[in-house]
Each structure stands twice: as C-alpha cells, then as structure tokens.
Write a structure and sequence with these properties.
The chain has 137 residues and is mostly helical. It has a domain at 10-37 and 72-136. The chain has six helices and no strands. The longest helix is centred in the last third of the chain and has 40 residues, at 75-114. The protein starts with 9 loop residues before the first helix and ends with a helix.
C-alpha cells in the first residue's frame, strides 16, 4: 500500500478546524432544541463557569491599577494623573541631562587643572582645531 504525504499549510488546517467547529456547533444547536429548560439552564451556568475559569486573571499590579482606575472620580482625574506623570518624566529627564553635563564639565575642569599645559594653550584656536581633528580620528 502506498502512503500519500499530506503537505498542508497551517492556514488549510485552520480552515478545516473552523469548518469542523461550525458543523459541531450546528449539530449541537439542533440537538439543543430538544432539551428541557432545566438542562439548558445548567449547561449555560456550566459554560459561564468554564469561560470564567479560562479567563486570565490579572496580577497584583494589574488588580491594583484597576482598582485605582475604578475608584477615581472620572476621566478628568485620570487625565490629570497622566499629565502629572508626563510632567514628572520630563522633569526627571531634564534633571538627568543637566546632571550629566555638569559631571562632564567637572571632569574637564579637573583635567585642565591636572594637566601640565598652561591655560593659554587651551584658549588657542589652532589647539582647539587640533583637538577636534584628533578626537575625530
């Protein structure tokens, strides 16, 4: 007996699964019309429980954020909090930039004071050009 290799793509398999799911749903829908109301109610409750158990639960941080968002007075308060957060981030970025520039200037001053060259050598335009060319190479 000869075996036939099936080279099916994931899309084709997905379509087959979807078609199978639709057929099963159709048959279950037809069969559901013949069930008692009590059984239909029990199935509905079981389905809701299964869906709730399957639903991913938020972590601690997500639950805290959700409770804070629900507890606030409205959209304006949330917008104000978001605006304050953006302003705080901008302020922190500006502070960090100024601090790093200050550190660079302090290092330059320390290098100037520790070096043996006189300060006039650093003020010479040719020396500045030489430093710029030397730093590029």
């Amino acid at each position: 007996m000869k075996q036939v290799a099936h080279n099916r793509t994931a899309a084709e398999e997905s379509l087959d699964e979807q078609a199978f799911g639709r057929r099963v749903a159709m048959h279950l829908g037809v069969a559901a019309h013949d069930l008692d109301d009590v059984i239909v109610q029990r199935l509905r409750v079981a389905r809701e429980r299964a869906l709730q158990a399957h639903r991913p639960q938020a972590g601690l941080l997500g639950r805290l954020a959700g409770s804070l968002a629900l507890g606030m007075a409205g959209a304006r308060v949330r917008q104000a909090c978001a605006l304050l957060a953006v302003i705080a981030l901008l302020y922190a970025g500006d502070y960090w930039t100024n601090w790093s520039q200050l550190i660079d200037l302090e290092e330059l001053d320390a290098a100037l004071l520790a070096d043996e060259l006189p300060i006039d050598a650093y003020l010479d335009a040719d020396f500045t050009r030489w430093l710029q060319q030397d730093s590029r190479s």
